[in-house]
Specification:
About 35% of the residues lie in helices and about 25% in strands. It is an alpha/beta fold. The longest helix has 20 residues, at about 165-185. It binds flavin-adenine dinucleotide. Flavin-adenine dinucleotide binds near residues 14, 167 and 265. Flavin-adenine dinucleotide binds near residues 11, 12, 105, 124 and 267.
Length: about 425
């Protein structure tokens, strides 16, 4: 394989795919395929929902990040033929051939086959999902006249977030703060109801006690109702059914948002490679797919044995893997030895409502408005490319990061 002409195909332009492409630029002929025209810095999708940040901050277009050494194709890969070394794209007859393949397709929402969940619950993984949720909250608020009695206003403004992992907690506190603020601005009676529903016995399972205490305080402060040891049985158009201690309850709701699970991209199911019991691709410590020296996989679809368990399914892991993967592709093209690396936990930063956050760094946790500032600083440093980081950092510093109220429709967004 001639090093400069080697065709490197990256499927997926998220944390794994984009950061690999950026590290590879100049080595071989790199093509990246993604259905969207932009990258998404998912950890700040909550701040996009609340208007604390804008789309260009966290979802920059690939053309802003990538120079002409990398070819981008906007499209959806529908099949990968590992023997023929080709990928097919939706709606296109021509296949794309490769010498080296990087699979970085990420995950999709897992509704666990719960009745009505896929049909009626809102996912929260993309810019379009955040737009749809914001719209749903505004429409629900617009449907409440100022003279409506508090109990009726509360019923119409009930939202449930399913799953109290970091995502569910971040989302529910953000929604609660936005809705409380809108109630005051619109002089509505009573208050909104935001519920977080968790099957396990605690919120943020898997995180330490120190950070859990901060999270629980924040949920209380944002007046989020916590329902642990509670199972969602069904989601309907206007509500949902839960079960707690064997007792079933139907709840009327303006929206149910599903953050209770991720599964690998369905394309992975079709790939005939070694997988673990969750359907994740088994990779060698070099990130090569077992049995395929020219195929690499990383991020949410890869099972990598030597990672700290809490890192599984995180951007932090995909990011660190991208650096190793790019250097291993260069080594493969040069005929050098490929390397392995142990990936480290880099700390956690959780957004809690519009004024608060929790940060865990170096084994110490702290919360409050200062943690919110620290989170912004930390995430500025983790955005792709220096150029983008500088533009975003300057925008946050000089223009501020205040939440945008849920204005009635027609008032501009
Ligand atoms: C709302 C939210 C908040 C999160 N917060 C955090 C956090 O605070 N910290 C943290 O560490 N992790 C966080 N995560 C997890 C993190 O986003 C993932 O672990 C990370 O994105 C994994 O990277 P990846 O490259 O495997 O997948 P992704 O970043 O999801 O990228 C997958 C890419 O594949 C593309 N794609 C999908 N299907 C196709 C197809 N058929 N053809 C071509 N391309 C395709 C997608 O468009 C996307 O570009 C969060 C996730 C979400 C959804």
């Amino acid at each position: 394989m001639a090093k400069d002409q080697a065709q490197i195909l990256i499927v997926g332009g998220g944390f794994g795919g984009l950061f690999t492409a950026l590290d590879l630029a100049g080595a071989g002929e790199v093509t990246i395929v993604s259905p969207e025209d932009h990258f998404l810095f998912t950890p700040m999708l909550y701040e996009y929902l609340s208007g604390e940040v804008e789309a260009w901050h966290i979802a920059p277009q690939y053309k802003e990040l990538i120079d002409d050494r990398i070819r981008t194709i906007r499209g959806e890969v529908t099949g990968i033929d590992l023997n023929a070394r080709q990928a097919t794209l939706k709606g296109r007859e021509r296949t794309i051939s490769y010498d080296v393949l990087v699979i970085a397709l990420g995950g999709v929402t897992n509704y666990w086959n719960i009745e009505g969940a896929e049909e009626y619950a809102l996912p929260f993984r993309k810019i379009a999902h955040a737009d749809a949720l914001r719209q749903r909250m505004i429409e629900a608020l617009d449907g409440v006249p100022p003279d409506l009695p508090p109990q009726d206003a509360r019923r119409r403004l009930t939202f449930a977030v399913v799953g109290a992992g970091a995502s569910g907690v971040e989302l529910s506190t953000k929604m609660a703060d936005l809705l409380q603020d809108a109630f005051k601005r619109r002089a509505l009676h009573g208050e909104p109801r935001v519920m977080v529903i968790e099957m396990g016995s605690t919120v943020v399972p898997g995180m330490g006690d120190e950070i859990r205490t901060i999270v629980e305080d924040a949920l209380k402060q944002s007046r989020v109702e916590i329902h642990t040891e509670t199972r969602v049985l069904a989601v309907k158009e206007n509500g949902f059914t839960i079960e707690h201690n064997g007792e079933k309850t139907n709840v009327e709701a303006a929206g149910v948002i599903w953050t209770a699970g991720v599964r690998p991209n369905p394309l992975i199911e079709k790939l005939e490679v070694e997988k673990d019991r969750r359907g994740l691709i088994m990779v060698e410590p070099t990130l090569q797919v077992r049995g395929h020296k020219n195929v690499f996989a990383l991020g949410d679809i890869a099972f990598f044995e030597d990672a700290t368990p809490t890192l599984a399914g995180t951007a932090q892991l995909a990011n660190q893997q991208a650096t190793l993967l790019a250097s291993n592709i260069k080594a493969l093209l040069d005929g050098r030895r490929l390397h392995a690396r142990h990936f480290e936990e880099l700390g956690e930063a959780i957004s809690l409502g519009t004024e608060n956050a929790a940060v865990l760094a170096g084994g110490k946790a702290f919360g409050g408005p200062l943690a919110r500032q620290a989170r912004f600083a930390l995430y500025t440093a983790r955005l792709p490319t220096w150029h983008h980081r500088l533009k975003v950092g300057a925008s946050w510093f000089f223009e501020g990061t205040t939440a945008r109220p849920l204005q009635p429709l027609g008032f501009g967004r």
